[in-house]
Design a protein that fits this description.
alpha/beta; Rossmann fold; 2 domains; six-stranded parallel beta sheet; binds NADP nicotinamide-adenine-dinucleotide phosphate
């Protein structure tokens, strides 16, 4: 059986470490605070936000939300982001994707100051990633890199395949793997022969959003499989990854479970970034 890349266990270690850092900050009179801007009508977003708040509060942090409704105007959204950017008691701001479609998310992200972008998804933060400059890194790919690092998975010289090119996941994951000296290929919906690309990959990161699309028979034997997918499937009680775990696990040398792999690492990385923002304040 492959090594299980246990994001649940590692995220617990990270959260324990965060508690200690939060206590040290308390001695300086600082309490890390994250504010989340979220579409109040979107149950999936609210579920994620609840989990983030629970873990933040367990670590001793303050977690607030600002609900966006169908009647929220673009001007109100931008004013709120400006206020949060200027409020010295706020260390991190998360704009939970997706916002309602009548709002311009890109303008919202451009308004948010990079020093509070603890999700690392503003153009300023992404530019810093491209330029190898310090800054907050996107929470999900950062969580993936922490998992690989924790389990001693060497990236240098390896063929890494990232399936998916979203701004929040696929593209920054590819850049972070490149930074670790992997030879990176990025696949997407227009790529041809995905099984052929998978067959070359020593490290495969699935960020597609298609339940169980990647099959074990596509994999290179011994591949490291990181499944960032989180898909609701009717009739299944838990979310399902982009990789078909049952067929992938016997071929892989290491694999993330879903749930319990990348998901908890995303939240831990977001909170880690927030505590770092407070430490830098
Ligand atoms: P997204 O914005 O919808 O992007 C999906 C990507 O997959 C796109 O680049 C798309 O290609 C590509 N794609 C779609 N169908 C494909 C196919 N048949 N073959 C190859 N590539 C294909 O999704 P996302 O936000 O990146 O999220 C991806 C998955 O990760 C989802 O399941 C999401 O729930 C999950 N997720 C998990 C976490 C976490 O914390 N674990 C965080 C964020 C997202 P095109 O660009 O050509 O359309």
């Amino acid at each position: 059986m492959p090594m299980l890349l246990d994001g649940k266990a590692l995220s617990r270690e990270i959260r324990n470490d965060l508690k200690e850092r939060v206590e040290k900050l308390a001695a300086r009179g600082i309490r890390p605070r994250i504010e989340v801007i979220v579409a109040a009508q979107d149950p999936a977003s609210l579920a994620y936000v609840r989990m983030k708040r629970k873990w933040a509060e367990e670590a001793g942090m303050i977690s607030g939300t600002w609900d966006v409704t169908p009647s929220t105007t673009q001007e109100q959204l931008i004013e709120k982001i400006r206020d949060l950017t200027q409020d010295a008691s706020v260390h991190g701001v998360l704009i939970q994707h997706p916002l309602p479609s009548h709002l311009d998310e890109n303008e919202a992200l451009l308004t948010l100051g990079a020093e509070k972008d603890v999700d690392g998804i503003t153009p300023q933060s992404l530019g810093r990633l491209v330029a190898d400059l310090p800054g907050f890194r996107c929470a999900t790919p950062l969580g993936i890199m922490k998992l690989l690092d924790h389990y001693g998975i060497e990236c240098a010289g390896k063929n890494a395949l990232v399936i998916g090119r979203s701004v929040i996941l696929g593209k920054p994951a590819a850049l972070m793997l490149l930074q670790k000296n992997a030879t990176v290929t990025v696949a997407h919906s227009r790529s041809v022969d995905l099984p052929g690309l998978c067959a070359q990959a020593d490290i495969l990161v699935a960020a597609v959003g298609r339940p169980e699309m990647i099959r074990g028979e596509w994999l290179k034997p011994g591949a490291v499989v990181v499944d960032a997918g989180y898909n609701k499937v009717e009739g299944r009680t838990t979310d399902v990854g982009d990789c078909h775990f049952e067929s992938c696990a016997p071929v892989a040398s290491a694999i993330t479970p879903v749930p319990g792999g990348v998901g908890p690492m995303t939240v831990a990385s977001l909170l880690d970034n927030t505590v770092r923002a407070a430490e830098l304040s």
